[in-house]
Amino acid sequence: NAGVTQTPKFQVLKTGQSMTLQCAQDMNHNSMYWYRQDPGMGLRLIYYSASEGTTDKGEVPNGYNVSRLNKREFSLRLESAAPSQTSVYFCASIPQGIPQPQHFGDGTRLSIL
Amino acid sequence: AQTVTQSQPEMSVQEAETVTLSCTYDTSENNYYLFWYKQPPSRQMILVIRQEAYKQQNATENRFSVNFQKAAKSFSLKISDSQLGDTAMYFCAFMKHGGIDKLTFGTGTLLAVQP
Known about the structure:
The complex is a heterodimer of chains A (113) and B (115).
Chain A: E1 4-7, E2 10-13, E3 19-25, E4 31-38, E5 42-49, E6 56-57, E7 65-67, E8 75-78, E9 87-94, E10 103-104, E11 108-112
Parallel strand pairs in A: 2-11
Antiparallel strand pairs in A: 1-3, 3-8, 4-5, 4-9, 5-6, 7-8, 9-10, 9-11
Chain B: E1 3-5, E2 10-14, E3 19-21, E4 24-26, E5 32-39, E6 46-52, E7 60-61, E8 64-69, E9 74-79, E10 88-96, E11 103-105, E12 109-114
Parallel strand pairs in B: 2-12
Antiparallel strand pairs in B: 1-4, 3-9, 5-6, 5-10, 7-8, 8-9, 10-11, 10-12
């Protein structure tokens, strides 16, 4: 039982390149989230998906797109990477119903040159 | 919108001593949840402790306990008998009851446990 799995763990891109970060959970959770973590700013929500087939913007959605491919998978895409998107990206999931702590993946460190 | 403030960017404590990390928050909600997450150098986000706002009793998990003051909107974390493995970044987080269950995080406190 892997929980929340993110791939890749590390990636270096050049400005203007595109990239998709993958996230999959095997806990049958309904809701999934993408956060970014920057020094001195904590984690900020980029996009979330309350259920399969739905996605909504979070606090910092500009420059990103998401796809909730099925209940297990929620991907984050950078269409044209910019240096300001250098960050650590976390995917998280939570079952629906009684609020519970989110389960986090191990993060993806993304550097854009 | 909710905000979470951690006013201590860095703290240090001697092994076996007790340390308290501060967190304040601002919300107009009455029903919500508060969490402390630990992020060691491995980068994992590990839940340390949670508190439901409707519960007056402070949550406790082994060496970790909270002081939840709802009226003051304060949620501090006390670590007793600090261990070297407690060295990590600690984040305070807020979740509104109902809605989309998203977390609002503070900026974190980097705790160093000294031998």
